[in-house]
Amino acid sequence: MKQICDPKGNGEDTDVRLKHKRKRGRSVRKQNHWKRNQKIAVLTAGSLLAQCVGVGIPVRAEIKHVEVSEGMTWERATASDASVLPDDGAWIDGEKATLEKATPAQAERIASISLLASPGNLWENWPETMDFPGDGTEEAPYQINSLSRLLGFSRSVAEGNSYEGQFFELTRDLDLGGLNLNHGSWNPIGWYQNAEEMDGEIACGFRGTFDGAGHTIKGLKIADASRKLVNAGLFGWIDGGTVKNLEIKAANISGEGNLGILAGRITGNAVIYNVKVSGFVHGETGNAGGLAAVLEGDGERVTVENCRAENVVVNSEGQDSFTGGIAGAAKEADLVDCLVSTQNGTADRIRGKGYVGGMVGVMEDANLYNSYVNGTIGGNGSRAAGGIVGKYQGGSIVMARMAGEVARTYQGTAAREGTFVGTRDWADVFTYGIEKDDNLAYLFTNSASKAKQVFGSVIDGDNIFMENAHIGYWTDHETRYTTISGEMEKRNPERYFYEELEDGIRSIITRRLGNEFSASGAAEDLRFRLDHFAPGYQGEPVEGYLLSVPRIDARNSNGTYDTDVAVLTAMPGSNQSYYRSIDKDHVAAVAPGVAVTVVTAPKNDEENRYQMVVDEKEPGGVLPPTYLDDNGQIQPMNYVSGGSYTFQMPSRDTEINVRYQKVTTRIQITPSDMTFHVVQTRSGDRKNPDVCTEVRTGEGVLIARYLNDVPDQSVEIQPVRIHGEHNSAGDTISRTMKWMVDDADLLQLAAEEGYTTEDARIIPRISSSFIQNILKKQIKAQADSQYQEPISATIYKTSGVVTAMTDPDYSAGNQPVYGNCRVHVTFQIKDQTTRRVEGLDLNKRNLNFTITRVLSGERKAPQEKYLCTGDTVLSASLIPEQPFYQNVTWKDQENGKNLRLSSMGTHGEECKVTVRYDEKGQEHPAWIQNVVNADDQKWQENPYGKRSGGASYSETVTATSEDQTHGVITAQCQVTVNFRTLDQTVVHPESVAIIPGQISFDLHVKKTGTRYAPVRVNQGFEPIQAAGIVKPEFSVDERPEGYHDQVQWSLSDDQCISVDSSGKLSPKPEALWITELLDGTAYGAVKEDQKTLWLTAKTVDQGLEAKIPVTLKLTVENQVQPIRSSTGGSSSGSSGGSSTRSSSGTTVSGTKNATSSVLPSYVVTGKWIQNAAGKWLFTDQKRTYVNEWAAVHNPYADISKGQSAFDWFRFDKDGFMVTGWFTDKDGNRYYLSPVSDGTQGRMVTGWQTIDGRSYYFQEESNGTRGALREVQ
Q: Do 306 and 279 contact (CB within 8 A), yes or no?
């Protein structure tokens, strides 16, 4: 590879490698993939290019990059002034073709520079094949199908490609034993770039997914005596990545530390699954592990599942090192279903000078679930040795078996040799037990003495456990077991060892992980799946898969479920003496390939019957039970004679199931009994009557009408529904039924053909022989009597039956179930025919109407409307009742002047009577208008009086008709109309005025006494009464109802004066206007001021307003005597000096004149006075300063130390100088120095450190100089 050189010419590191920025954490690394028009690096000077290419001398050149596109010239590329090289710095071989306009010599120069940046001196001469087939997705992963591509893969990660979110697949076995570079030593995937970096962190770890696909990498060697290799294995650092389905056979992994066959370090949320390793690992000082040296979640959790370290030899010579068959150190990690086997030789075992464990050297916040270790652990010189863990610092060890031996460490009384745990510190507490927060449980070995020595440490409680810890040893070739509690041993003859182990798995899943112990729930929301235990050929524990039985429920057609309706039991067929029966309450594991026999039966009672779903195509005539196969697909079981079924246990957790349905045992018919009433009404001429036949339900609801045997189109025929419900509540698999009727002549049935879920609809037939035979007989009898009498209203009765039948396939015993509804039908004739008219009748003989004149609003300008009671309808009828022969005529006495008559009905038999009046009051009948005019005349004379006119009027309405003999018949109705007036008007105020027309206050405030005992005298603050005059005015007797003449008082400014509800004005002696003027008046001075404001009187009704001016004339006089003090004594600081007493009584502990010859014009000079309490006052001989800022000369300042001759000071309400924090009325915060250094009280500016924090105060004189602006 060519080298690019340093333009500084300082000879430093002439090997230019376009290094990546090292990024730790979880950020996505940029990938080194070229795309057309990507930025590539070029040299900015042709002379430097010639120097590097032509001469080969290492000289650095400044690297730029430029967008390269088709046809770009050499001159344009080399002259480009682009930005610095991107992080990945990638150039790809062959991209020089894009510069096709370059000359051959120029193209040769480009080609001579490698377009791929070197990762460092560890990778010199390392092959760089990175043209992986595939696109890196899970569906089409990058393929590693050769040693060169595996080498390129390791180099690519060193260059900064983490491959996060990308996938690799090993497609064949690879042998690293023939590696002829780097002395045959492998450079790990995700490792350092330079040898000098090995004392630090790896820049880029692997974060993608590497699937070994069941292939093997053998001949792995990592050894370099010249370098202290660290973090080494097939991978250097797996940083949150995934490695699975891989076998690694290592020849030799040697180095300083953090060494493992798979990886040096595995961190983050990495997942290692189904990885098998073997070989030799040796560390000089650091950690060593068969799989990895270090597992560390770093805030997440590493998962190591189903991994095996077989025939591994692991050693570390470091006194503080950790050595383990799976990992040297495990922190924030879960190790699940892992196995370790080692040898028993003096050197060929898992050993070390530090802490040695069969699984891990040390564990902290780690979980070891279902661990198995065989072989010799520890040896001479080990600080501690444990069959499972060398040193316990926290976490859980549940379900661990130690089949090997813990070797003697020959440490004398310091020896720490435990069957399961080598040692722990006293602060690393733990508890035995199976509850979630317990740490150790289900620990087994092959002898009683070993089982009693759980810990090698000698801390109280280390080896004291009760029976609930489930600690013991196996016997009888691992078919039986004994548990230990103190000195007591308990053999369990009724249980096999595999059952105890499976209980341990159940405890982990249900108590610790909180999952359901079932095929579907055991691994839910987990990153791993625990192995299960089943009996082998001799009853010994072998790997099995969970077989669970759910509760069998039956779904009903109405959406409800009947729960636990059947029994479903499984019995593994092979080695039957070792298996137990499996049902929904007894879940167990079964070895794959074992034949399982399944039987099922319903749980029937008198009310509920269930049966399997019928399927005549199946051998058993029903749908068979099902199970989940190896792919998780639902498969039917095989039928066995006698009603049992069988299937072969798959190589996965499975759940068996069966479908039951609830069958019908009875039908509930609603209603079970119903009645129809058929009534035929005959009217009109008895010889030729009009016939109306109505059909009603028993509740009287009309469902059909026939006029002279023809359906009345105005009434929809509505058959009545009959509903059938299976098992009363409809909670069966099918809701269908078939409807039938026993008397189709009497009852008309409307229902779907065959079996249906629809209700039956039923209605009587009026053409039935039952009704027609009655009619024929009665009509003939009336005719025989010469129509003298109507037909009698006799009620005749009969009945029929509607039947529902269920489908036999969904009925108990496959026999139909029946339900009936009895339908009663009655028939009655109502003969209303007539023969002759005898007179005319009206429904009302008297009518009364009222017209109301309503006046509202302002009485002098009222709103007027007229209301009248509603129209009334008169109805005429013939006596006896029968249809009219001629139309009825209607007439009133005044021929429509006062009433309006509107004839209605087929024969005018109805008349709407309407009173004539004008709603607008403009065209009344004369009798009404006369009343209105008279009332208005009175109002004109008294416009504030109410109107109350009224009168009544009566006349007769006559109805006339003729009968069939042309005889005239009449009837009359008396109509009375009443008129009244309703006056709802009100009187409102029309004006308001204030008396007097203006008000003036002459206020005088005088302040005497001393500053600390002032006396204030107020004059002219007596209240003045104002009055509001509202018009019109009424006497008490004449005052209209509801008249409101109250007023509300208000002031344009109520800060200086107040007004009460009666109009009384009262000046406020303590008003801010007065106080400020008084405070601002110097001793012996008199000031005057004047305010004019407005008093408003507003009527409550109508809101009328009147305003007058109110003048406040103010004179203030300050006769308070000033503070007098002596001038004796002085101080170089802000304290000390002689003590005198001022005339005001203030004890002066120090005074100093504040004078200066060179001061700005705004700076005041005078005298500083300190009282006995240490507080400072300032006076300029004319006044003191109160509640204000002042720029004051400071005679205490030391100019030679850089202190200012004057500063800004703040004085409080008593005239004392303020120190510390001060906030003004605008919210600005200032800091006045509290330090007695000659400048106490000065306002600080710029950056200041106050109580350990930094503050910035405004420095510019912009009106807020000294205000706080920033805090750090």
A: no
